[in-house]
Write a structure and sequence with these properties.
Elements: H1 2-16, H2 20-32, H3 39-51, H4 55-67, H5 74-86, H6 90-99, H7 109-121, H8 125-137, H9 144-156, H10 160-172, H11 179-191, H12 195-207, H13 214-226, H14 230-240, H15 249-261, H16 265-277, H17 284-296, H18 300-308, H19 317-333
């Protein structure tokens, strides 16, 4: 009995550290030595496999519990549903979730979170949001994972207004809203052409003492670019460096696109100067945007420099577009 408890504790330790192979070795050793594996030991091994993304092993173990006449409890079901989420098996996950009451248990926040995550990853966004509503009707308080899954479902279905309601609800309920949740919401607002709300959310994140990431900046700049707000995009661009985040090629592309769409050729070429002083290499999209700005602003030497500096192997729509424009504009001036 003492040895069984020791090995069960060891299983739990491996589970917490996501060392699922070691957990399986311990579990198999228990079986080989004839040590009785109870529900707690099986759950520990099952959880270790699930957390280590060994979802096939986790589901096999869940099935073997029934075959071995072991009582599966709510922890067993939650771990198995999480394994389905990692294996992109939303139907099986939903079936397991539906089976929880049949076993005499009531789904808890972990059950709902795992099932919603499985549905969100399976692109079953209406089902995920319906499950979120059911959860609240049942009096089960959502946590950060649940809200994250609901926000992800809103993002995929472009329901920005629902996402904003969820974000506000999470904050009112004292749920910790992290940077990932803010980033997902900002990205959704950008896709929905709600640039002012995206900038407002970015500002709220800073006010809440959350440090924006490169993704936060890029998503907000992209939201401004989509709504032709070049000044706001530039302002965000110039906030990055003081924040300790050097702009990436994605940042330059989004900001350049905002300037190009707003016919701000000088600002676009000013960004080129910053880019030249950085360690970044011009990619096809960025070079194409700069070429377009140089040509539209009649900055021929700069356009020539960009064209001559393009690698021969580059085959990009943006570059082809800029070259075509160059030929057209030279023809017009001839």
């Amino acid at each position: 009995m003492a040895e069984a408890r020791r090995l069960t504790r060891l299983l739990s330790k491996h589970g917490r550290s996501r060392q699922w192979t070691k957990a399986l070795q311990v579990f198999q050793d228990m079986e080989t030595r004839g040590i009785q594996c109870d529900t707690i030991a099986c759950n520990a091994a099952l959880s270790a496999c699930e957390k280590g993304h060994a979802w096939r092993h986790a589901l096999e173990m869940f099935g073997s519990m029934q075959d071995g006449c072991l009582q599966r409890d709510l922890i067993s079901f939650n771990s198995a549903i999480s394994a389905c989420e990692k294996g992109h098996l939303w139907r099986q996950g939903l079936s397991l979730f539906a089976g929880i009451p049949e076993q005499g248990f009531r789904p808890d926040v972990f059950s709902y979170s795992a099932a919603m995550s499985a549905l969100e990853k399976g692109q079953q966004w209406p089902r995920a949001l319906a499950l979120f509503s059911e959860m609240q009707r049942q009096g089960c308080a959502p946590n950060g994972v649940t809200y994250g899954a609901a926000l992800g479902a809103c993002g995929k279905s472009l329901q920005w207004d629902v996402a904003m309601q969820l974000l506000g609800q999470a904050q009112r309920q004292g749920v910790q809203v992290d940077v990932v949740m803010f980033n997902a919401s900002i990205s959704l607002l950008g896709q929905s052409q709600q640039w002012e709300k995206a900038v407002g959310l970015f500002t709220a994140m800073q006010a809440g003492r959350l440090r924006p990431t490169e993704i936060s900046f890029n998503a907000t700049i992209s939201a401004c670019e989509k709504d032709l707000q070049w000044a706001a995009a530039l302002a965000l661009f110039f906030q990055m460096q003081p924040s300790g985040l050097p702009p990436s090629n994605i940042t330059y592309s989004a900001t350049l696109s905002a300037c190009e769409k707003g016919a701000r050729w000088e600002e676009a070429l000013q960004l080129y100067g910053y880019l030249q002083r950085s360690s970044l290499q011009l990619d096809g999209i960025t070079r194409g945007l700069l070429l377009s700005a140089a040509l539209k602003g009649a900055r021929w030497p700069r356009a020539r420099e960009l064209l001559l500096g393009a690698p021969r192997s580059l085959s990009d729509d943006a570059l082809v577009y800029a070259c075509t424009m160059a030929i057209s504009m030279i023809g017009q001036r001839a």
